[in-house]
Amino acid sequence: MERKLARAEKRFSDALATRDRCYNDLLTEYSACKRWLSEETELGKAPPRPLKEWLVASAVPEPQYVDEQTRILREREFHLFWNTELYKRSRTARAFSVAAKKLERSFHAIEKLRHPERYQKGFETTPTGMALIAAGKYTLPPSEGYLLGYPKFQKEREIKVSAFYLDKYEVTCSEFSRFLLAQPLALREEHLPSTWRWSSDGSPLFPDGHAAHSVTGVSWSTASQYAEWVGKRLPTENEWQIAASGFSQRRYPLGDLFDASKINCQAHGAGQVLPSRQFPEDSTPQGILCMTGNVREWVSDLYEEPINSDRAKSVRDAGPESMAVLKGGSWRDDPAKSQAHYRWLFPATDTRLSYVGFRCAMDIR
């Protein structure tokens, strides 16, 4: 075991060095593209590779490059132009993406050796803090909310699922802080929630009195990494909705009637996230709390929405243009947006909002 751990730590060290090198290369290319567009001293030089490929693909003749520079900067901010057009043409961006994923995987490989109990499969009884969602064929009604480009959600559909476990409670600040403390320094900063800070000794600091509050201000990518770290995963959109509405197609996770006194919603008036356990009546029959209110929740489904297509496509990995699905109502939502079949999509890698959190799921075997 010691030899396995030493090899895993060496792979992590190598992956870290590669990630840092790729990041520096990416930053250099990003800066070069920005300079070429914005500085007069760069006008006579050939554009960096991603810009050159974009100009060629856009059929811009070389004598018109200067005019195109002016037009690009007039119509959009550079970072948006980079994220939507140049990033996907950048070889250094692809290399960095591969290196970043390899670094995360190498960290999880070390954790699995250090804490094998977290990653075990198969349980004689339902794990503590989770509920069993029965296998079967569920009928789901047409969705509301974000539907343009998602035709399959615009009509009733039958979904067959295997049994799975789902957390009864949203992940809390104290639980998430343990995840941050387990991270190597090279990975901590990118996972820090938006309202948290670092203490002088390097420990994460969440707002005072929020240990039992549901964690918010984390991106889909961070939520996914946390779920893997605890030996779980994010639920799929269908799984989340099945747990919320059941075989009976409940309109809301707690039933067919909306009662603001039982839900941390807009009408309740709290105006902020609260601990899930403060709302025991916002519960499914299986005892899963706060699927109607408190925070919207990330689920695992990722999509990209091509400009030249009217249909979104499902993707496995989160990139700069990936959209992730959110389910459930939050402390700022009204009854219509708290229904089990309502859905949102937000950017997966950089959305960190005060009304968005998550819970985890787990396969039975």
Write the layout of secondary structure elements.
Elements: H1 2-38, H2 49-57, H3 65-75, H4 78-86, H5 91-114, E1 130-133, E2 136-140, E3 144-145, E4 157-161, E5 164-167, H6 173-182, H7 185-191, E6 197-198, E7 204-205, H8 220-229, H9 237-245, E8 296-304, E9 313-315, E10 323-327, E11 342-347, E12 356-357, E13 361-363
Parallel strand pairs: 3-11, 8-12
Antiparallel strand pairs: 1-5, 2-4, 5-13, 6-7, 8-9, 8-10, 10-11
Helix pairs in contact: 1-5
What's the CATH superfamily of the largest domain, by name?
A: paralog of FGE (formylglycine-generating enzyme)
Structural class: alpha+beta
Low-confidence stretches: none
Q: What is the rounded distance between the termini?
A: 25 Å
What is the N-to-C order of secondary-structure elements (H for helix, E for strand)?
A: HHHHHEEEEEHHEEHHEEEEEE
